[in-house]
Design brief:
By secondary structure, this protein is α+β, with helices and mostly antiparallel strands. It folds into 3 domains: 177 residues, Orthogonal Bundle (Hypothetical protein af1432); 141 residues, Beta Polymerase, domain 2, CATH 3.30.460; 142 residues, Ubiquitin-like (UB roll) (Roll). It is 55% helix and 11% strand. The protein has 24 helices and 11 strands. Strands 1, 2, 3, 4, 5 and 6 form a 6-stranded mixed β-sheet that branches. The longest helix is centred in the middle third of the chain and has 35 residues. Bound molecules: manganese (II) ion. The site of manganese (II) ion has 4 residues, from loops.
């Protein structure tokens, strides 16, 4: 990747003055990295430029792109954060600082590492801890993706280490951000380095299978396309081939029997409106016999990462099994680009909006975990202790959706108890909890909620928080709110302020 090429790629999407700034950043970074080389022998600058190029492809705002160009300057060159701030502004410096902290934290040199438990997935916690602004993580994903694509130049042991970390940490994060395409790219590359033999074996199997079914699928596609046209549904139909890594994972579940996998290749129908999605589903079910257990409505009930589509698997008269995925263009965009779509250059807001409260409150329901992430990041910075287990529950566990009786949707970690829901709705409601009704039935305080539950908090003025409630909440948010209510009521004493002072002293000593 070279300067001229990057500027050309950026040209259609950004304003004239933004492009000038980009050129300025490229020149600054080129000078800073002068003389450094990548393992491939390329000049080092080719890497940050490739990262910036990915961020442009993902439709990120100009500050992220500039930070992409500059992301390795503070760590690897003489350039300082102050310089970057004075040249490119606070917003860009803030992002570069975030990315630098992630890298530093990884090599264990950073203060953050001092108060976070050293475990296998330390990196994920560090990513979260410095991920005050989720764009930092998106830049980090671009960085990782480019490093993976040039991994062949690394020694074998490093290849394995980076590939494993990518599968364990970066791919799940991309998934959690709803960035489906990036997740797949990371998984495919990482898997091909981690287990090249298995990767190639599956790739060959896939090739053979696809060769046979592509022609048959073509016939189905023509049939469907004609039917949709007849009913005046405007649509676009594409074939979607399963990725090697997800085939690998699925094969493990079905004891390696590839005949049990129906979605090696699926047909994806993209339409204009949500209503059209359901019309298409109806038409497909009129044309073919659906497999009843394989109809999924992720439009009415989205996946926890926000993914929306209708899925159905049908059997054609020639006994062919075909999976269809039906979605609107908007849903398709989100499925591919996820949260990155929210920072689109078409609707750029100022960096300050993201840094301040606004960035969180404008997120859709399924992304509420990001608010929690930012909350936890702040508390880690304030030296509050959060256990490993807690982080896993809040951030890396599976998520469920529950509803208020009014139909408002809430996103909670799996295993969450009714009081977690109550505190999520409002701590003033939670403190007067008397009982719970779930799906119309009385529900005990200690029984976890399930996906799709409708939860009603029954309140009484005379009810108030009790100490044993501490055992009946799982999320950090609820624990924190409940604790401060208990303190207010004098039920538990505020010993933590003393602990806090001691901790502050210790950390001051450390930083000397
Ligand atoms: Mn880098």
């Amino acid at each position: 990747m070279r300067k001229k090429e990057l500027l050309e790629n950026a040209h259609p999407y950004y304003e004239e003055d933004q492009l000038l700034e980009l050129e300025h950043a490229i020149d600054f970074a080129t000078k800073a990295h002068n003389g450094q080389k990548r393992k491939s022998g390329d000049p080092y600058i080719s890497h940050p430029l490739a990262v910036a190029d990915l961020l442009i492809q993902w439709g990120m705002d100009i500050d992220s792109v500039l930070a992409g160009v500059l992301h390795d300057t503070v760590e690897d060159t003489e350039a300082t954060l102050d310089e970057i701030e004075s040249l490119f502004g606070h917003g860009v410096a803030f992002l570069v600082d975030g990315v630098t902290k992630v890298s530093k934290a990884r090599s264990g040199m950073q203060d953050l590492a001092n108060y976070l438990p050293q475990t296998k997935d330390n990196l994920s916690k560090l990513l979260i801890a410095v991920g005050q602004d989720v764009r930092v993580i998106i830049i980090k994903l671009a960085d990782r993706l480019h490093n993976l694509s040039t991994l062949q130049y690394m020694p074998h042991d490093k290849q394995v280490k980076i590939a494993r970390e990518s599968l364990e940490v970066f791919a799940p994060i991309a998934d959690r951000l709803g960035m489906g395409r990036v997740r797949v790219q990371i998984e495919e590359l990482a898997f091909s380095f981690l287990d090249p033999t298995e990767y190639n074996r599956l790739k060959n199997i896939m090739k053979k299978r696809l060769g046979k079914s592509t022609r048959k699928l073509g016939i189905v596609r023509t049939e469907v396309s004609a039917e949709l046209e007849k009913h005046k549904v405007k649509s676009e139909i594409n074939g979607r081939v399963k990725s090697i890594y997800s085939l690998y994972q699925k094969l493990k579940k079905v004891d390696g029997n590839i005949d049990d996998i129906y979605d090696l290749m699926a047909l994806r129908i993209i339409v204009e409106t949500k209503e059209d999605c359901y019309r298409v589903l109806g038409l497909l079910h009129t044309m073919y016999q659906p497999m009843i257990t394989r109809i999924k409505d992720y439009i009415a009930v989205p996946k926890p990462n926000g993914y929306q589509s209708l899925h159905t698997t049908v059997i054609t008269p020639t006994k062919q099994i075909v999976e269809f995925q039906i979605r609107t263009y908007t849903m398709h965009e989100f499925a591919e680009r996820g949260l990155a779509a929210g920072f689109h250059y078409h609707e750029q807001k100022s960096t300050n909006d993201y840094i301040k409260k606004k960035r969180a409150s404008t997120l859709p329901a399924q992304m509420q975990w990001i608010t929690q992430l930012q909350d936890i990041a702040t508390r880690l910075r304030n030296n509050e202790e959060i256990s490993t287990e807690q982080l896993n529950i809040d951030i890396f566990g599976n998520r469920i959706f529950v509803y208020s009786p009014k139909g408002d949707i809430y996103n909670l970690p799996e295993g969450a108890l009714p009081l977690d829901f109550a505190y999520m709705v409002h701590s003033d409601i939670a403190k007067h909890t008397y009982s719970f009704r779930v799906n119309g039935k009385i529900h005990p305080f200690d029984k976890p909620l399930s996906n799709g539950d409708v939860v009603e908090v029954v309140t009484r003025k005379i009810s108030s928080p009790k100490q044993d409630w501490l055992e009946l909440v799982k999320t950090t948010h609820a624990k924190q709110k409940l604790r401060s209510q208990l303190k207010e009521l004098g039920i538990i004493r505020t010993i933590s302020s003393a602990a806090h002072i001691i901790r502050q002293k210790t950390s001051r000593r450390k930083s000397k």
